[in-house]
Amino acid sequence: MDVFPASLLTNLSLQLGQFPSGLEDAVEAINNPINGFAWGWPTVILIAGTGILLMVGLGFMPLLRIPYGVRMLLRNPTSSSEGEISPFQALMTSMAATIGTGNIAGVAVAIAMGGPGAVFWMWLIAIFGIATKYAEALLAVHFREVDPLGNHVGGPMYYIRNGLGPNWAWLGGFFALFGMLAGFGIGNGVQSFEVSSALATIGIPRLLTGVVLGVLVFGVIIGGIKRIAQAASAIVPLMSLFYVIACLVIILSNISEVPAAFSTIFSNAFTGEAAASGTLTQVILMGFKRGIFSNEAGLGSAPIAHAAANTNDPVRQGTIAMLGTFIDTLIICTMTALVIITTGAYQSGESGSDLSIAAFNSGLAGSGWVVTAGLVVFALTTVLGWGFYSERCTEYLFGVQAILPFRLVWVAVVVIGAVAGNRGVVWDVADTLNGLMAIPNLIALVLLSGTVFRLSKNYRFEED
């Protein structure tokens, strides 16, 4: 006799996942106008413009110094360095938070809604996002503090307050507020929802998925940044390599379609063809949104992890941080996109993780489990990484005494997100919170760009 009958768990998941009558409409009514502001053209221009300003002001140094960043990543910290985790662990923690459903489900959503051309705009925002991520980490280390527990803390809220002065502390407070809330969307609810959706296709009840994820997450985040970094450093490199190899197998099996795939991406990037709305605006916005969702350059999340790095030089850590954007979007997201396009699955009408699974099954019969496994592992690490980000934002707002209550609420939302009722509502709310989080950070990056340029100019790369 089954102690927990699958049918009982399934029915309970469905009941929990049902929004009360009218609630879904109410959420959309509140969210849509805010989303129109947070992710309208002014924000898109601010994101792109900040990346361009930093890249040009740095003389395209971030692109030219990618090999240098790799060398610094492999170098051990010096004895005089301060911080809780190694530079490698800081990068893995930040990538744990970015390599998630954005690389699998997010790319699929971009292609389903914006057509193949959206991939081009993902690439473009990622290229300039390399400079943005560099600047964020540099400022995070340069303006970091030590909290009452002895931990190095930093990120936009700190470089706003310490870099721009007390008169700008309100802006740092807004970032921390939006960052705390955004974590529950982009880093928690969306992740557990997509995992439960993928596992539901093979008969696993959503509630069971949520409970198991919640237990795993609690077991790690209760140990703080060191345990999160240890888990990320063990999981992220191996799973990323495995996923890329799996993508390459399918791409190589459809190698004759690759030139046509790139041609479709470039041709559709400047037309409304294949976009759900039939407009170029939809193509660009979907590419930008999903690109930022995948690599988080400009959101201000990654520098929170890099502020804890065991390093004595902001520029060096910045060159390590920028590798995350390069690997995340220009490599892993591109692999997912090519699988979806070369197999022709993007014309199936599916979206999200369902589309990615369909693409893998189409490219190599029975390989859809790779997507499911990737979603589970990547989403778990994303929830861990974002748990740390949101925790730091919560600490900034309410002090260290709020850490334990935050962790308990965070785990509860993992379970709730797994049984959420509507993919569209979940993603739309996450997008809104992302935009609100990005705005204070981008303003600070522009105002502190002189500091970024000065520290970078004075740094002697050749001595390393």
From TrEMBL:
<keyword id="KW-0812">Transmembrane</keyword>
<comment type="similarity">
    <text>Belongs to the alanine or glycine:cation symporter (AGCS) (TC 2.A.25) family.</text>
</comment>
<keyword id="KW-0769">Symport</keyword>
<feature type="transmembrane region" description="Helical">
    <location>
        <begin position="396"/>
        <end position="420"/>
    </location>
</feature>
<dbReference type="InterPro" id="IPR001463">
    <property type="entry name" value="Na/Ala_symport"/>
</dbReference>
<keyword id="KW-0472">Membrane</keyword>
<keyword id="KW-1133">Transmembrane helix</keyword>
<feature type="transmembrane region" description="Helical">
    <location>
        <begin position="366"/>
        <end position="389"/>
    </location>
</feature>
<feature type="transmembrane region" description="Helical">
    <location>
        <begin position="39"/>
        <end position="64"/>
    </location>
</feature>
<feature type="transmembrane region" description="Helical">
    <location>
        <begin position="432"/>
        <end position="453"/>
    </location>
</feature>
<dbReference type="GO" id="GO:0005283">
    <property type="term" value="F:amino acid:sodium symporter activity"/>
</dbReference>
<dbReference type="GO" id="GO:0005886">
    <property type="term" value="C:plasma membrane"/>
</dbReference>
<feature type="transmembrane region" description="Helical">
    <location>
        <begin position="326"/>
        <end position="346"/>
    </location>
</feature>
<dbReference type="Pfam" id="PF01235">
    <property type="entry name" value="Na_Ala_symp"/>
</dbReference>
<keyword id="KW-0813">Transport</keyword>
<keyword id="KW-1003">Cell membrane</keyword>
<feature type="transmembrane region" description="Helical">
    <location>
        <begin position="167"/>
        <end position="186"/>
    </location>
</feature>
<protein>
    <submittedName>
        <fullName>Sodium:alanine symporter family protein</fullName>
    </submittedName>
</protein>
<feature type="transmembrane region" description="Helical">
    <location>
        <begin position="234"/>
        <end position="255"/>
    </location>
</feature>
<feature type="transmembrane region" description="Helical">
    <location>
        <begin position="198"/>
        <end position="222"/>
    </location>
</feature>
